[in-house]
Amino acid sequence: MDGTSPNAAFEREREVATAAVRDAAILCRAVQRGLETAAMDKEDRSPVTIADFGSQALICRTLAEAFPGDRIVAEEDAAMLRRAGAEESASRVLKFVQGIRPEADGESVLSWIDLGRDEGGAGRFWTLDPIDGTKGFLRGGQYAVALALIVDGRIEVAAMACPNLPVRAGDEAVGAVFTAVRGEGAEVRPLDAAGPATPIRVGAGTDPRDARICESVESGHSAQDQSALVAERLGVAAAPVRLDSQAKYAVVARGEADIYLRLPTRKDYREKIWDHAAGALILAEAGGVVTDVTGRPLDFTKGRELSENRGVVATNGTLHDRVIAALAEAYGSA
């Protein structure tokens, strides 16, 4: 044995992913400073912004350069920007992308965005949410740029930039990048500086009465009434911590909360893989556990959705079985 880590081969992927989400986060901040955060509505009525498109263009281009054979499963595509009447929006996306990639032109940016149209499934691919928590981005709250590498259904690498989350709880300065490689642990570093990475670890609490629960700000994203039932059954005293995006995974991963519940609001809803892959690995490598509401591992082999899973439960690990049991009771009595 030479002492080499079994996942040492993925260190380059981590470096590339970290640089990619950092560049995208810089673009997102530039969009906000330019007061160009007006949203367009997609067919499902969810919002999308100039920053979503610009972030995806930058990250897909970086991945294509570094790993030209890799596929990308991303949330957005360029169809809206190619429509008649969308020329001004496409021009604004180009302007912000050129702030990072001066060589970009309009057609290149659209083609970079469309690199994310793969369907995933088997083999090796990246999954990307260019802005997770677009409503949080629009209101100046929490959002994340979330990127993960999946190989044969296993998340191997994750990088997640949280521009409005401090590196350490209580810091005045905000901007953090969380990364993980399977088997190597999870860490956080400043978004704006070349500071050292700091390992992160979940909290060690074992009494659910002392736990803090994270959930979405938007009631349409998670069944908050069911979350309240779970909290009641666990005896949780503290009010829930509500914030947007996969930043919730980061908050649990570094011990500021103990439980993250994403409970389905309707029976036929299935989560998208880009909404959970990066955060799930970061939390798992910090010592936590992530499953669906029945305790099943998340299955990333079925394409763009977690079609074999229902909802998501993420905890510090020591509380996981208790939470799953409480969910079974809550859903059984609902």
Comma- or semicolon-separated keywords:
334 residues; alpha+beta; Fructose-1,6-Bisphosphatase, Chain A, domain 1; D-Maltodextrin-Binding Protein, domain 2; seven-stranded mixed beta sheet; five-stranded mixed beta sheet; 33% helix; 19% strand
Short structural summary:
The chain is an alpha+beta fold and 334 residues long. Helices cover 33% and strands 19% of the residues.
How does this model look, in words?
The structure is a single chain. With 334 residues, this protein is α+β, with helices and mostly antiparallel strands. It folds into two domains: 8-199, 2-Layer Sandwich (Fructose-1,6-Bisphosphatase, Chain A, domain 1), CATH 3.30.540; 208-333, D-Maltodextrin-Binding Protein, domain 2 (3-Layer(aba) Sandwich). Helices cover 33% and strands 19% of the residues. It has helices at residues 11-33, 50-66, 79-82, 87-98, 106-113, 134-139, 224-234, 247-253, 277-285, 320-333, and strands spanning 40-41, 47-48, 71-74, 124-132, 144-151, 154-162, 176-181, 185-190, 198-199, 213-215, 241-242, 259-262, 289-291, 312-315. The strands form three sheets. Strands 3-4-5-6-7-8-9 form a seven-stranded mixed beta sheet. Strands 11-10-12-14-13 form a five-stranded mixed beta sheet, with helices on both faces. The protein has a two-stranded antiparallel ribbon with strand order 1-2. The longest helix is centred in the first third of the chain and has 23 residues, at 11-33. The radius of gyration is 19 Å and the shape is globular. The mean pLDDT is 92.
